[in-house]
């Protein structure tokens, strides 16, 4: 191995050298965090939110949870369609990520059957398949996972793939949504943790499938300055790179 190859090769822990192991570790941490929140944190946090009794109709609360609204996601998808280098591929990825997250969220909420803390503060009370098949489509008082948080993180994860330089901003906006949903006592802490993980998984699952059906166009996805750089600086022709590694930036 040459000195250059040794310099370019990241030194990873043996436990996280493969993507499948990294995903498994992250999912395990997510599940462990869910368990800790459900067993020890949900009750105290929900009782605090009940005593705080914030004004749910305050305009500031609507602004905080705006990124968890389907209309916001639709507007962002249209913006990607107009301004992103990948146009319909980027917009389609966001739309499919949101749809996947919505389907998984509905199934989980109906299967778990947990009531909102604003109705009853009992985080370990579950009523699976509440209201039968009708509950799958119309049962407003079920709380796990948080739908707003799920959509906000599906949107954040997708935008992080398409515009990686701003990914921390996108995830921060998702955290605002999660915090607002807990503060207004609409959800337990574990509800928003579940929604965040489910939304993120939905986006990356959609990306993984989409990249195998319609591969990401590297030339369009690369930043403008990289696209204009000499071929020698961009790597050998035909060199394989992942969708996520070459995420695009919005042209200025």
Written account of the structure:
This protein has one domain. The protein contains eleven helices and no strands. The protein is an all-alpha fold and 252 residues long. Helix 4 runs antiparallel to helix 5 and helix 5 crosses helix 8.
Features:
disordered C terminus; 0% strand; 252 residues; disordered N terminus; mainly alpha; 62% helix
End-to-end distance: 40 Å
> What is the helix fraction of residues, given as a range?
55-70%
Strand content: under 5%
Kindly report the average pLDDT value: 81
Helix count from the secondary structure assignment: 11
| Oligomer kind | single chain
Quick one: how many beta strands?
0
Class based on secondary structure composition and strand pairing: mainly alpha
**In angstroms, what is the radius of gyration?**
21 Å
Judging from the principal axes of the Cα atoms, what is the shape? globular
Low-confidence stretches: 1-16, 222-252
Total individual domains: 1
What is the H-and-E element order? HHHHHHHHHHH
Biggest β-sheet strands, sense, barrel: none
Q: What would you say about this model in short?
A:
The protein is an all-alpha fold and 252 residues long. The chain has eleven helices and no strands.
Protein topology:
Elements: H1 3-8, H2 19-52, H3 59-64, H4 70-83, H5 88-112, H6 147-162, H7 167-183, H8 189-213, H9 218-221, H10 224-227, H11 231-234
Helix pairs in contact: 2-8, 4-5, 5-6, 5-8, 6-7, 6-8, 7-8
């Amino acid at each position: 191995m040459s000195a250059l190859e040794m310099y370019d090769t990241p030194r990873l822990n043996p436990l996280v050298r493969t993507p499948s192991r990294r995903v498994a570790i992250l999912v395990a941490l997510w599940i462990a965090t869910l368990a800790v929140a459900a067993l020890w944190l949900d009750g105290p946090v929900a009782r605090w939110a009940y005593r705080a009794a914030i004004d749910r109709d305050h305009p500031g609360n609507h602004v905080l949870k705006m990124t968890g609204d389907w209309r916001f996601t639709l507007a962002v998808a249209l913006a990607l369609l107009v301004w992103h280098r990948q146009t319909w591929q980027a917009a389609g990825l966001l739309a499919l990520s949101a749809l996947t997250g919505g389907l998984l969220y509905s199934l989980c909420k109906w299967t778990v059957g947990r009531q909102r803390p604003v109705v009853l503060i009992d985080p370990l009370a579950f009523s699976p398949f509440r209201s039968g098949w009708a509950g799958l489509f119309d049962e407003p008082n079920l709380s796990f996972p948080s739908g707003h948080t799920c959509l906000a993180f599906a949107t954040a994860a997708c935008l992080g793939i398409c515009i990686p330089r701003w990914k921390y901003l996108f995830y921060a906006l998702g955290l605002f949504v999660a915090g607002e949903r807990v503060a207004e006592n609409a959800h337990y802490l574990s509800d928003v943790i579940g929604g965040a993980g489910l939304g993120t998984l939905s986006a990356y699952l959609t990306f993984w499938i989409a990249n195998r059906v319609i591969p990401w166009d590297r030339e369009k996805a690369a930043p403008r300055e990289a696209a204009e750089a000499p071929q020698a600086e961009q790597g050998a022709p035909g060199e394989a790179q992942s969708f996520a590694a070459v995420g695009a930036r919005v042209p200025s």
